[in-house]
Design goal:
Length: 498
């Protein structure tokens, strides 16, 4: 799909009505009547509102989801028929891709080209993947002794609670929604209060596609209120979350305090990017290094925020990365002339500014960037920033900033590179650049992360699982393995001897 500035400007100019919760295929105001202002990171101005829900709204949505599940209207529908509803949903998402993308950019500041590809178009592909898979996956017969029939049934868990973040809400949302719905569950979705609009529209399109009432419900509001209510609800069977580590810990606590619901967490990372001197294409490695941390202003869970470069090429490679960073044009994310948009909210901008200041105070060498941009616009913009000669003791090397800040240092030996890469509590993603096939295999084995990318960045898609090690979480989004989170296995042991 080719982007046209006139079409983008037309959609930007459209007033967006105040949005309510989407429950039982209908708009419903918060029980308390409260609303939250929606502030665009493009200019810091309010442009609509969403419902400021509380625990009573969550309870209504969960009860409606449970009633829909127990009725069998969705879980007992033939998989081939569920497939057709999901495929129609994907078609509608694709047909509305540009309006969804522009709406999302107004809400969270992602540059429009990345938003279109990474949000509605990616969401449509994810929905189609699980739609096509669901009537091809069955149970099993186990190899038991004669006279016994041992069956393994795969059943939907019931009501799934999903909590998704403000970066790429459609893509990450469908990573959870599509497999959960495909196997027959009903869902209550809590979007980030900083990026709810496109997910509300996504649910409306699902209803238009024929998803039965109560199967997909969206409740908006503040995380400490709505997210907590979902986590504590006794009738939510599984909770799937993408976000920060502190919130993930709270959700595990809420599970223990309530019904011991299964909790699946994707909690971000501090991903390493290792560049050996024999990398097959150092210019591409430099371009991809810049892209891996500065795309969407660094607000990507698999951003490679720690750069380790073999000493022999360190200075030249760092200069090449800086040169690519300095070609990036940061500004209004709905202007096609810009390559990098805004940070999603004022809190994230303030966190980035503080992290840059701390890095300088702790002795990191600033190579480029390090400043807030376009402050007079009212928007939340920050320059792509590179620090060199970073040590492990520095916060910029340890803490996830979730902003456009790269921390670089040298290494001398292959074993040292892997030690440095693993000096983190996280383990989500990693990148290795080398022409040696043997070294590539050694790197895959040595690096403790759920993804190891060799000579590329963001090569994985919905066919490949995304999941973390260590404090990056548990369970998997994407791929057929994601279905496992949303089913129960039931063993049937049948004695045939009688």
């Amino acid at each position: 799909m080719r982007l046209n500035q006139k079409d983008i400007d037309h959609l930007r100019a459209q007033a967006l009505p105040a949005r309510e919760n989407f429950i039982a295929n209908a708009w419903r105001p918060a029980e308390n009547g409260r609303k939250l202002d929606v502030i665009s990171p493009i200019n810091g101005k309010v442009f609509t509102s969403i419902a400021a829900s509380d625990a009573s709204d969550v309870d209504v949505a969960v009860r409606i989801a449970r009633k829909a599940f127990d009725s069998g209207v969705w879980p007992k529908m033939a998989p081939a028929d569920r497939k057709q509803v999901l495929l129609k949903w994907a078609d509608l998402v694709e047909a509305n891709a540009l309006s969804l993308a522009v709406m999302g950019v107004r809400d969270n500041g992602t540059e429009i080209a990345a938003a279109l590809k990474g949000e509605p178009l990616a969401a449509a592909r994810v929905i189609r993947f699980y739609a096509e898979a669901i009537d091809k996956i069955g149970g099993e017969i186990t190899p038991t002794r004669a006279g016994i029939l041992s069956l393994i049934h795969r059943e939907p868990v019931g009501v799934v609670g999903a909590i998704v973040p403000w970066n790429f809400p459609l893509m990450i949302g469908t990573w959870k929604l599509a497999p959960a719905l495909a196997v027959g569950n009903c869902v209550v979705l809590k979007p980030s209060e900083d990026a709810s609009l496109s997910l509300l529209r996504l649910a409306e399109l699902a209803a238009e596609a024929g998803l039965p009432s109560g199967v997909l419900n969206v409740v908006t509001g503040e995380g400490p209120i709505v997210g907590k209510a979902l986590g504590l609800h006794m009738d939510v069977d599984v909770l799937a979350f993408t976000g920060s580590g502190p919130v993930g810990r709270k959700l595990i606590e809420y599970s223990a305090r309530s019904n011991m619901k299964r909790v699946y967490l994707e909690l971000g990372g501090k991903s390493p990017n290792i560049v050996f001197s024999d990398a097959p294409d150092l210019d591409r490695a430099a371009r991809d290094t810049a892209d891996s941390i500065f795309r969407n202003s660094g607000q990507v869970c698999v951003s490679a925020s720690r750069l380790f470069v073999e000493r022999a090429i360190y200075n030249d490679f760092l200069a090449a990365v800086a040169a690519h960073a300095e070609t990036l044009r940061v500004g209004d994310p709905l202007d096609l002339a810009n390559t990098t948009g805004a940070m999603a909210n004022a809190r994230q901008l303030e966190k980035t500014v503080a992290a840059v200041k701390t890095a300088q105070e702790q002795g990191a060498r600033l190579v480029t960037g390090g400043v807030r941009l376009h402050e007079l616009s009212g928007g939340y913009y920050h320059a792509p920033t590179i620090f060199a000669d970073v040590s492990t003791r520095m916060e910029v090397a340890r803490e996830e900033i979730f902003g456009p800040v790269l921390a670089a240092r040298t290494f001398d030996t292959e074993s040292e590179a892997y030690v440095l890469a693993n000096e983190t509590v996280y383990g989500l993603s990693s990148i290795v650049w080398t022409a040696s096939l043997a070294r590539a295999h050694r790197a895959v084995a040595a690096i403790k992360s759920g993804i190891v990318q060799v000579n590329c960045y963001t090569g994985a898609d919905v066919t490949s699982p995304l999941g973390g090690m260590k404090q990056s979480g548990n369970g998997y989004d994407r791929s057929l393995y994601a279905l496992d989170k949303y089913v129960n296995l039931k063993s049937a042991w049948i004695d045939l001897s009688g």
